[in-house]
UniProtKB/TrEMBL annotation:
SUPFAM superfamilies: HAD-like (SSF56784). The lineage of its organism: Bacteria, Pseudomonadati, Bacteroidota, Flavobacteriia, Flavobacteriales. It comes from Tenacibaculum geojense. This is YjjG family noncanonical pyrimidine nucleotidase. Keywords: Hydrolase. It is an enzyme of class 3 (hydrolase).
Length: 229
């Protein structure tokens, strides 16, 4: 790690607490729509469906609108709830409009960023949508930590496509071997960055993505990254 000069972070599930903020957003929308909803039951069904749709999105098998509609439609169907398409589309729109207004960060985010900012240049690589990722960073008061912010929208392809990482490294005016990528997705962040020549660190806090290859660094808490950097 002696040659490392740049640290790239994924945003959702890594620094920005997607699960908590998403749940609060849906709770607000359901209340506004006067929809009685067991939020624990909803989240239990929604989360794996959302993960599946994001995998399809990364693989270019669904577009943004299909992801936003499909994950809700499938969730309501699984819960045996009859919800009109116009209501689903309204919820999908309100979700995007309100998600970034919630600002909970993963435990240890600020402490780690303060520690790393003294030693490295920090950047973001995210598959999220331009329209809300910048709002998340600004509303959570962490945008100023990062020099380069790369979204899949700005590149035209998504992680783990190597073009995303190559574009990000070039934007940072560096080479891959001088860069670390920190993220929660084994497929998108770990394998994607490794194939580009970067050093990956897998953040495994939510245990959704199990890391099968022990040759990669994997940490259960953000604070644990300090022992490597």
């Amino acid at each position: 790690m002696d040659n490392i000069k740049h640290i790239f972070f994924d945003l959702d599930h890594t620094l920005w607490d997607f699960n908590k903020n998403s749940k609060l957003t849906f709770q607000q929308i359901f209340n506004d729509q006067n929809m009685a909803m067991d939020m624990n039951a909803f989240e239990e069904v929604y989360m794996p469906i959302n993960e599946r749709y994001w995998k399809l999105y990364r693989e270019e098998r669904v577009n943004q609108s299909s992801l936003r509609y499909g994950r809700l439609k499938d969730t309501f169907d699984a819960l045996s709830l009859r919800v009109k398409d116009e209501t689903i589309n309204l919820i999908a729109k309100e979700y995007i409009n309100n998600l970034s207004s919630f600002t909970h960060l993963v435990e240890g985010t600020i402490d780690l960023l303060d520690y790393l900012k003294q030693k490295y240049q920090l950047h973001i690589i995210t598959n999220g949508f331009d329209e809300i990722q910048y709002k998340k960073l600004n509303n959570s008061n962490i945008a100023d930590y990062f020099d380069v912010i790369v979204t899949s929208d700005s590149v035209g392809v998504k992680k783990p496509n190597p073009r995303v990482f190559e574009y990000a490294v070039k934007s940072a005016k560096s080479i891959a071997q001088d860069c670390v990528m920190v993220g929660d997705s084994y497929e998108a962040d770990v394998l994607g960055s490794f194939k580009t020549g970067m050093i990956p660190i897998h953040f495994s806090d939510n245990n959704i993505h199990q890391i099968p290859d022990k040759n990669f660094i994997s940490v259960p808490k953000l604070a644990d990254i300090k022992q490597y950097l």
